[in-house]
Amino acid sequence: MTITSFSLVTKGPALGVRHLQVLFLFTCASLVILQRMNMSVAIVAITNANSSNPDYPEYQLTEQQKSYILSSTFWGSCCTQLLGGYFSSRFGAKMLLFVISLATGLLSVATPFSIAWGGWRLLFGVRLVQGLVIGGMWPCLYTHLAKWCPKKKKKEQNRFGGIMTTGLDCGTALGFALSGVLAASPLGWPSSFYVPGYMGLVWCLLWLRYGANSPSESQFISLAERKHIELSLEQSQPPKGEPLAVPWRHILTSRPFLVLAFCKMSQACSFYTLMQQVPRYIHGIFRYSIWMNALLSALPFVIMLMSSYGFIFLAEYLTRRRNIPLPILRKTINSYASWTPAIALVTLTYVSDQNVVGSICCLIAAVAAISGQAIGSSLNHVDLAPNFAGLLFGISNTLMSAAGVISPLIIGFAVSDESDRTQWRSVFLGIAAILFVGNLMYLIFGRMTVQPWNGSKPPAVTGAAAETQTAATAPAEALSMEKFSYF
C-alpha cells in the first residue's frame, strides 16, 4: 500500500456513504417525530374548527381526553424500546427502520379516518399502535450510527451523532409549523396527517435501496472508506464468529449507565412537556389563531435546531483545536443544556400575562438550550458501550417515554384551566427541580469511558478491580482525564 492510499484509508474520504447513512438517520428521525408531534397542534383544530378551516368537522373532547390522546404515542413507545435495541443490536437496523417508517406512515394516513369512524377512543388506539411502532426507532438509529461512525474519530462521532439527533428538533419544529399551516389551508386539519405519512413512505423506498447495516454490506461504499471505518471500529468489535452475548447484569448494575438513564429521564420530563404543551399554553394564555399558535410554538424549536448545529461545531472545535477532554466537554455542555432550561422555566412563571415577548423569549431560551443534550449526554450511550449502544438507549429511552406518558396526565390534572397562569407555574417549577437534580447526578457519577462489559464476554470484576480495568481499556483521551471525572 502506498503512502497516499494509506493516508486515505486512515483519514477516510471527505464525503462518502457514511455521510449518506447519517443523512438517512436524520431524515428518518425528522419524519417520524413529525408524525408524532403533529397532534399537538392538530388537536386544537380538531376541537375548534373556527381556529383553522371551518369546512372540516369539529369534535368535542374533554381536557382529560386530550391528555390521553397526546400521551398515547408515548404509552406505546414504553413497550418497544428494549425490543428495538435488542433486535437492532443482534440483526442490524436496516429492515427494522424500514418497517418502523412504513407502519408509521400508513398509520398517520389512517389517523383522520379513525376519529371519524370510532371517535376519540379509536383515535387513541391508532396513536397507541403508532407509538408501539415508533418506540423502536431511536435504539435502531444509535445502533446504526455505532456501525458507521468511526469510534476513534471523536470529531466525526460528535458531528454525526449531533446531526442525527437534530432530526428530533427538525421533526418537532416541522410538526408544529407544518401542521398549523396545513390545518389552516384549504386541505384542512386531515392534511396534517396525510402529507407527513406520504413523505414517510417515500423515505422507505429510498432507504430500501441505499441503506446498509454496516460498511461491509453496502453496495456503494469505496474500499478506502470501508477500511477507514472498519479499522477504527475493530477494537470495539467482538471476536469474529462469536455470538454477541448481552451482559444484562452488568448493564443493569452499571453506575455510569444508571446515572445516565436517570439524567435522560429528567431531561425528557422537560422536553416532552414543552413539545406537547407549548401549543396548549400559548392557546390558553394568549388566545391566538391556530396558524399564529403554530408559528409561535414552532419558533423555539427552529431556534433549537439552529443551536444544535452550533453545539456540533463548538464540540468539534473544542476537541480538535483546544484538545478539551471528553468528560469535561460532555458534562459542561450537559450542564448548560439542563440548568439553563430550569432557570428559563422558573423565570417564565413570573412573567406577566401581557408580556408576550418575554414569555416567548423564556420558551426559546429553554428549548434552544436543550439542543446541547445530544452532545452532552445522548452520545454517552456510545461512549459507554459501542457494541450495545442501541440497547442502552432502548433502556434509557423507555424511561424517557415513561416521562412522556406521565407528563401530560399530571398536567391534565394540574391544569384544568389553560388560561390560569398559576396552574402552569406549579408545572414549570416542578420540571426545573427535576432538571437540576438529574444533571447534578450526571456531574458527580457520569463516565465517558468504554465499560469492561462492552465485549462479548464481560469480565466478572467489581469494585476497585473494575475501576482499574475500565481505566486500562479506556481511550487515551478519557484516561488522561480520569481524575476529572467528578467535574
Radius of gyration: 22 Å
- Report helical residue fraction: over 70%
- Outline the biggest β-sheet: none
What would you call the shape?
globular
Number of helices: 19
Question: Which whole number gives the mean pLDDT?
Answer: 80
Q: How far apart are the first and last residues' alpha carbons, in Å?
A: 44 Å
Portion of residues in beta strands equals under 5%
Describe the fold and architecture.
This protein is mainly α and 487 residues long. Helices cover 75% and strands 0% of the residues. It contains 19 helices and no strands. The chain has helices spanning 3-11, 17-47, 63-91, 94-134, 137-148, 154-184, 191-210, 223-233, 248-252, 255-286, 290-320, 326-348, 356-370, 373-378, 380-384, 389-414, 421-445, 463-473, 476-479. The longest helix is centred in the N-terminal third of the chain and has 41 residues, at 94-134. The two termini are 44 Å apart. Residues 1-10 and 456-487 have low confidence and may be disordered.
Describe this protein with a few key phrases.
single chain; 487 residues; 19 helices; 75% helix; globular; disordered C terminus
